[in-house]
Amino acid sequence: MMRSLYSGVSSLKAHQLKMDVIGNNIANVNTVGFKASSVSFAEMYSQTLQGASSSGASRGGTNPMQVGLGTTLASIAVNHAKGSIQRTDIATDLMVDGDGFFMVTDDANAQNVYYTRAGNFSLDELGYLVTSSGMKVLDKNNQPIQINMSDTKTATATDKVTINGNLNLNETDYTTTIDLYDSLGDVHTLNFNFVGDPLTTGTELDLTGGGVDPTFDPLNDPTVAAHNYSYRQVTITDPETGTQIMPDLTTTPPQVPLFAMFNEKGEVVDLVNLADPTNGSSLPTHAAGTLRMNIPGASDLVLTIDRNMFFANGDSTANDATRIFTQFSKESDAKGVQLNGISAGTISSFNISTTGEVIGIYTNGEQKVLQQIGLASFDNPPGLMKLGGNLFQDTPNSGVATYGTAGAGGFGTITPGALEMSNVDLSEQFTAMITTQRGFQANSRVITTSDEILQELVNLKR
């Protein structure tokens, strides 16, 4: 009789624990990154009244007779399935779309590392990316992520430019401007002028006999090296004073004129000097010069002037070199572009990419990867221990953490401006609550019925 009492009591305790878990799940239905738990029961010891026997010549075998002694808690398992996504459009809100965990720490040396799926981060007064409880978020090198909003990007001087677009064959005076940066970040504007009528060869010119490399002519044919070429004079002037800077006419002797060289299809070939600057049939030679501007308080601004100006990325030697300057019979639209050089700037904002790169955006238009958010993964995530505050800690059964970054291996990607919500399924929890309540009621009835039988036993002697 006492066995049924103890069985009922054990079941009440087990159902009470299950109800505690269900209540916690429902309480955290709106907790960011929360992972629901589920309870399973197991049978307690069984008392053997009679063991099993084997069969004999005249009698068959018998099964064991056992009386169970109730139920016990088998496990409380954490469900690590991904929760639903909630858009927030807040730059510091992050969601891991995969199996990775964010890494956070509460000490200066990042010796204590904890793991979380809750990406509702923010910046503190020192620019550290922190959790809602102030723990610092770690990067791929286990260093706290800090966004220094006072960070500056130093100025760099321009040393490479390009001329991109078309120069109308019939336009005799066309100018495009280029802004150049000095080592202090100040801007200096120059005019690149294409002046005068095109000089033409009049007769076919054989490049193999001159100083121009025929490989820079798109029409070059090893069997036919002679083509009709035309030339447009190039000058560089100061837009404020109109002074010609290059070719420099004040030197002794004055610098020789520069010409942009085009083939009969309007494709740029080279920047050249002509043996006779007034005769398009004279011998062209490759021109390469240096424009140097003396700027008080800054380094000299030095700019190489050669055929590279007419090729994409300012590089005529690349295997896939592309000409970006033409002379067609259409509207002139050539523009000067400075390929490098920039003014000084400070961080104005930042964003976080899907791979966890924290990208600083500077006032001068530059962008720089400041740090990259680190992630951790485990062979057995359910083996992690909950610590409260949306934190997990590794255990011997979770396996050793593997560290990496979003987008690599099994870490998943990061969705910025979004949060992973709780994975609690309310319909499932309410169903479990009903079965738990009925199980508790049924076992309460077992206890009361056992008590009534004991009462009858006590009342036998009257």
How would you briefly describe this protein structure?
The chain is mainly beta and 462 residues long. It contains two helices and 35 strands.
Number of helices: 2
The whole-number mean of residue pLDDT values reads 89
Q: Could you tell me the radius of gyration in angstroms?
A: 41 Å
Measured as a percent range, the helix fraction is 10-25%
Overall shape: it is elongated
Global structural class: mainly beta
Instruction: Please give the domain count.
Output: 3
> Separation of termini?
21 Å
- Kindly estimate the percentage of residues that lie in beta strands according to DSSP: 35-45%
Which residue ranges are poorly predicted, with pLDDT under 50 across at least 5 consecutive positions?
none
What does the main sheet amount to?
7 strands, antiparallel
Give me the count of strands: 35
What does this structure look like?
This protein has helices at residues 2-27, 426-458; strands at residues 37-43, 46-50, 65-68, 71-78, 85-87, 94-97, 101-105, 113-116, 122-123, 129-130, 136-137, 152-153, 161-166, 173-181, 187-200, 205-206, 226-227, 230-237, 244-246, 258-262, 268-274, 284-286, 289-293, 301-305, 325-326, 335-338, 345-352, 357-362, 367-372, 374-377, 385-388, 391-393, 402-405, 413-416, 418-420. The chain has 462 residues and is mostly beta strands. The radius of gyration is 41 Å and the shape is elongated. The model has no long low-confidence stretch (mean pLDDT 89). The strands form twelve sheets. Strands 14, 15, 18, 19, 20, 21 and 22 form a seven-stranded antiparallel sheet that branches. Strands 7, 8, 11, 30 and 33 form a five-stranded antiparallel sheet that branches. InterPro entries: Falgellar_hook_FlgE_sf, Flag_bb_rod_N, Flagellar_FlgE/F/G, Flg_bb/hook_C_dom, FlgE/F/G-like, LlgE_F_G-like_D1. A flexible structure which links the flagellar filament to the drive apparatus in the basal body. Belongs to the flagella basal body rod proteins family. It is found in: Bacterial flagellum basal body.
